[in-house]
Amino acid sequence: MITGSRLIVRLSFFAAASVLFLPVLSTTGALKLILQASPFVAICSSVSLRQVEGGAAAGLAFALAAMFRRRWFCRYICPTGLLLEWTARIGCAKTSWWEKLPHIGKYAALLTFFGAIVGYPFLLWMDPLAIFSSFFSIRTAGTILSGFLAGIGLAILLLTSLTSGQFWCARLCPLGGAQDILNSVKSLFRKKGDDTTRQEKAIMPLRRALLFGTAGIGIGFLARRAGAARGEDAPLRPPGAAEEDVFTGLCTRCGSCARVCPSGIISPDSGQAGLWGLLSPIINYEKKYCLPDCVDCTMVCPSGALQRLDIERKRRYIIGEALIDHSLCLVTLGRKDCDACVAACPFGAIRIHWDDDLYAAYPLIDMNNCNGCGACEVVCPVEGYKAIRVWKLENPG
Fold first, then answer.
1. Which residues fall within 8 angstroms of residue 144, CB to CB, at 6 or more apart?
2. Same domain, 196 and 343
3. Crossing angle for the helix pair 104-117 and 174-185, nearest 10 degrees?
4. Co-location of 215 and 357 in the same domain
5. Residue 78: is it exposed, middle or buried by C-beta count within 10 angstroms (0-12/13-18/19+)?
6. What pLDDT score was predicted for residue 272?
7. Residue 218: burial class (beta carbons within 10 Å; 0-12, 13-18, 19+)
8. Which CATH number belongs to the domain containing residue 329 in this structure?
9. What domain range is 352 assigned to?
10. Is 311 inside a domain boundary?
11. pLDDT of the residue at 135
């Protein structure tokens, strides 16, 4: 039963998160701080990045609170938990068929933590705050498929609550599992006269922890190899993106970067990067491009999948490489006196070159000035497959 004061706190956080995620009054900093409040995200991302960002300190503080008060974050903060609890009350579940099942959330948290040790916290996307946040990206998804992918996570959790009550929160949630593990740690500090039997039950057996630790490290290494193998075939990522072999592990799929993008060019991946990259953000230059003076997406990432950039660093960051297919270019073919890409490039990286030997003109790109913003691709008048397109570099700067 929820007490009056606890209900007020939970409702307040739920309302604040909802308003900021819409976005109606959202600020990039607030979006990031809400998602970093999750102890699961704060711990695993900090381990993976080998540093603690300012906002993650709150999540680590909540993790400390969970050591002394079981599932403190769930009881007072988590908006997803509150929503699922209400849904379960009006649902059709009559029995808790899952009560004898193991606490899978603990194992998911352990796997992710040990994956983070090798830089790939591969179940970070299961964090309930990230799932809650992703739902609010439906409005800015751009396509029906992207909107469906953005909202599918929370929809599954709601359906689960309607049919199976608190199954997700009690057995599957890695955030809840992480708090249970943290809460069991306090029994290590009990005095010798305490109940040792209760103490042993509170701590996950060492052998099992080592087994899942080994599995987490192994899966992390395999996932990194799978990401690295894609190389130049990888999709374009938002500016500030980590290397492809760790990006899909660090990304929480929260959708914040897509919501704050003023150009609307970021959307969830529907399979271009393979299974490991599903729902992670990709860039599409079909209608608009990445504005040179915008760094909003880099300011909201809670896990470090996108590093924070200022305007100067953003302009130097290489999103991709613009390449010209001269078999399609109207200038090279001599069909049109076109300089659309030259005029559109905000960095002056493209010029029309006259070749005396070939007695022909064609566009040239200065790679030292091009950061792959996509402005040239958007304005190219060639219909269908553009004559100039931005491709992923294997090792972006």
1. none
2. no
3. 80
4. no
5. buried
6. 82
7. middle
8. 3.30.70.20
9. 319-397
10. no
11. 92
| Rounded CA separation 319/317 (Å) | 6
Q: Is residue 309 part of a domain?
A: no
Task: State how far the Cα of 80 lies from the Cα of 294, in Å rounded to an integer.
Answer: 31
Contact 381, 309 (CB under 8 A): no
CA-CA-CA-CA torsion for 248, 251, 254, 257, nearest 10 degrees? Answer: -100
Q: Which DSSP category does 374 fall into?
A: -
Query: 274 in a domain, yes or no?
Result: no
The reply to whether 190 and 78 lie within a common domain is: yes
Q: Six-digit token pair at 278? A: 């599903």
Instruction: Determine the length of the chain.
Output: 397
> 126 and 24 in one domain?
yes
Residue 201 identity? K
Number of domains, the chain: 2
Point out the domain boundary residue: 177, 206, 228.
Answer: 228
**302-316 burial: b if 16+ Cβ within 10 Å, else e:** bbbbbebbeeeebbe
Identify the residue whose tokens are 């796997």.
111
Closest by CA to 175, choosing from 134, 113, 128, is 128
Q: How far apart are CA 1 and CA 260, in angstroms?
A: 37
Out of 173, 199, 228, a domain closes at 228
Place of tokens 């929820």: 2
Say what the alpha-carbon torsion angle 269, 272, 276, 282 is, to the nearest 10 degrees. Answer: -40
Report the distance separating Cα 9 and Cα 1, nearest Å: 14
Residue with tokens 């809650």: 132
Give the per-residue pLDDT at 397. Answer: 45
- Structure confidence at residue 180 (pLDDT): 92
What pLDDT score does 175 carry?
A: 97
Q: What is the mean pLDDT of each run of 10 residues along the chain (397 residues)?
A: 78 88 67 90 95 89 92 93 93 82 93 95 95 88 80 94 94 96 74 52 64 90 79 82 92 92 90 85 93 94 94 92 93 88 95 86 92 96 92 66
Environment class of 84 (CB within 10 Å of its CB; exposed 0-12, middle 13-18, buried 19+): buried
Please, are residues 255 and 32 in contact by the beta-carbon 8 Å criterion?
no
Same domain, 122 and 9: yes
